[in-house]
Amino acid sequence: MSDNELTEVEIIKSASRHLRGSIAEGLVDQLTGAISPSDTQLSKFHGIYQQDDRDIRSERTRQKLEPAYSFMIRARIPGGLLTNSQWLGVDRIATKYANQTVRLTTRQAIQYHGVIKRDLKQTIADINHATLDTIAACGDVNRNVMSPPLPALSAIHRQVQCHAELLSEHLMPKSRAYHEIWLDSKKIESSKNEVEPIYGDTYLPRKFKAAFVVPPQNDVDVYAQDLGFIAIVENGVLVGFNVSVGGGMGMTHGETDTYPRLGDVLGFIKPKDVLAVAEAVVTTQRDYGDRTNRKHARLKYTIDNHGVEWFRGEVERRSAVKFDGVRKFAFISNGDIYGWHQDDVGAWHYGLFVENGRIGDFGERLLLSGLRKIAEQYNVEFRLTPNQNLIISKIDESKKVGITKTLAKFGIQNSQYATPLRLNSMACVAFPTCGLAMAESERYLPTLIDKLDANLKQHGLTDSPITIRMTGCPNGCARPYIAEIALVGKGPGRYKVFLGAGFAGERLSAPYLENANEAEVLKALDPLFARFAADRNDDEHFGDFLIRIGTVREVTAGKNIHDN
Ligand code: SRM
Ligand code: SF4
Fold it and tell me: Residue 486 in 3-state DSSP?
């Protein structure tokens, strides 16, 4: 491949001296609130995105001012596990440097929005003091490794969490750039002496995502991951994992050679082989992924181009691990579990609904203050969920009453307001910070749910859980294509609607409406709710029902999604 075929990002990575670029120099230039365009690509590998406030972008242009630049910072938190003192650190930083909110993400991480350039370095230093970091939270490397947050089986979940932490560490870039730039570590003599043993000098062709899951909950949406490990528990013992590869959500409107895809399960491996297999999957993608077209560079396309059999053979050869036949497992839901739950050793956990992951003090719902109070008063753990919620975890029986009272005092307990539809909803960030948003998402879905809930009530469906997810563009950050109802932004107030996914995230939704506004969405869904109320079978989910009655055709492979 010649250099002029490579994407611009490949060239930037290659010249970056292992992700250093001119970030350090750019930070001291106070004439602009921005960093250089090539550094904006590199800063992602450090967990930092340059953004501007899109609500005032055109006004700033009119006034001939530079855009209102600020930075989004994403921390890396394997399995979303935080101690109470880490939570207090997270809260302090949000209040001091960001927009007074913490945003829980769809990958069990947190984001800060609105950090200005002159505070960037101190914010990262404070994150480091809170014993967290932002390395590899973004960029063409392995991202935050997910792991099931609710420890129903304490020993199994603990083991799986350990695997997630080990994998996260194993796939971390080895460059010291982050420590030098943000934490003032001593500079190494030359980045030429530095080796990236897994990634090589140009890292991966594209982002890479891995997750562990413990059936029957598919809360991490394992089939949406580049690499998934499905825990197999026999007689109470973790015997190994089924490995799935090639999941991904992103696509581009109108480009039918881009598509969401669910992972293929390659086979079963023993726990001791996790790292070798993961590394083989990553290096195969490193060597065969498309570096000439970023829209075609994810592992899902590498696998569709070369075939699953070829991929399995390549992973077996590189890892020296032979896959065994797939072991039996079943998923029941890709959502979170809310309210009080006791694990098998008697500890309590409270699954707290956080609408679209945004933690702040809003009206009577004082989430930020309430969680601060709990973290100050009780020695508990905080588990971030893959559905943008939070579990207050490891609670002794004696603390249950106190925590319940605090939740009520700050107006943050799961209430009537959190209907089954809302509890099974997710929206990506979109406006005003996301540079790729075409339509509202986080700021709009709650209102749409109010209206859909009113319709569901009319049909006596208030107790029926239905998954609904919204994104401001087709990139799929809230994993919309595996929600029974998906709304994907096309333009201001306009959404492409997909229907019919499996309730456990095991089947993709199919396109149903092309460019609908709110009135058209409500008008289309109302008769479907009416038929669902009248004709569904016992325990039948909405997505399965829509396939059975022929509203949409089942999507059997991601690349066929546009044929519906
Ligand atoms: Fe995402 C890009 C937010 C999970 C697919 N995503 C972005 C950016 C950084 C926009 C950008 O590139 O300028 C968004 C920042 C918005 C903002 O203002 O904060 C953004 N993605 C998010 C988060 C915060 C959504 C949320 O509401 O929680 C999630 C952060 C996860 C984390 O902690 O790491 C987030 N993004 C996802 C997921 C879901 C997942 O990983 O399980 C997906 C779909 C799965 C996948 O990767 O296929 C996802 N994000 C994308 C894509 C499309 C990738 C593709 O293959 O085409 C982009 C655009 C890109 O990479 O070019 C993107
Ligand atoms: Fe932004 Fe699109 Fe991701 Fe939403 S789905 S956060 S609009 S990139």
Answer: strand
Please name which of 423, 481, 479, 412 lies closest in space to residue 449, comparing C-alpha atoms. Answer: 423
Exactly one of 76, 176, 207, 422 is catalytic; name it. 207
Q: For residue 374, give the nearest of 356, 399, 398 by alpha carbon.
A: 399
Q: 104 CB less than 6 Å from ligand 1?
A: no
Q: Give which of 214, 224, 82 is closest to 159, Cα–Cα.
A: 214
Q: What is the pLDDT of residue 193?
A: 77
Q: Does 434 contact ligand 2 (Cβ within 6 A)?
A: yes
- Evaluate whether 339-409 and 420-560 have a shared fold: no
Exposed, middle or buried, 307 (CB in 10 Å: 0-12/13-18/19+)?
exposed
Mean pLDDT (10-residue bins), the chain, 564 residues: 83 96 95 96 98 95 96 98 97 98 98 97 97 97 97 92 98 96 78 87 98 97 98 97 98 97 98 98 98 98 98 98 98 96 95 98 96 97 98 96 97 89 98 98 98 97 95 98 98 98 98 98 98 97 98 96 86
What's the token pair of residue 353?
């609904």
DSSP assignment letter at 253: T
CB 240 within 8 A of CB 277: no
Give, in words, the CATH class of 339-409: alpha beta
Instruction: Clarify whether 138 is annotated catalytic.
Output: no
Q: Active site includes 434? A: yes
Amino acid 446: pLDDT? 97
Task: Give distance in angstroms: CA of 137 to centre of ligand 1.
Answer: 11
**232 strand-pairing partners:** 240
Q: Ligand 2 in contact with 488 (CB < 6 A)? A: no
User: For 529-541, b where at least 16 C-beta lie within 10 A, e where not — what string?
Assistant: beebeeebeeeeb
Pocket mutation for ligand 2, best pick of 471, 487, 495 (most atoms within 8 Å of C-beta): 471
Between the alpha carbon of residue 416 and those of residues 171, 217, 440, 466, the distances in Å are: 43, 24, 25, 16
Number of CB atoms found within 10 A of residue 417's CB = 13
pLDDT of residue 3: 64
CB of 388 shorter than 6 A to ligand 2: no
CATH number of 420-560: 3.30.413.10
Instruction: Name the token pair of 173.
Output: 């870039």
CATH match for 145-186+194-335 among 3.40.50.261, 2.30.30.100, 3.40.50.2000, 3.30.413.10: 3.30.413.10
Boundaries of every domain in the chain: 145-186+194-335, 339-409, 420-560
Ligand 2 pocket test: pick from 434, 445, 487 the residue with the most ligand atoms within 8 Å of its Cβ: 434
Ligand 2 lined by 436 (C-beta under 6 Å): yes
Ligand 1 atom 60 nearest Cα: 475
- CB 462 within 8 Å of CB 443: no
Q: Is the CB of 72 under 6 A from ligand 2?
A: no
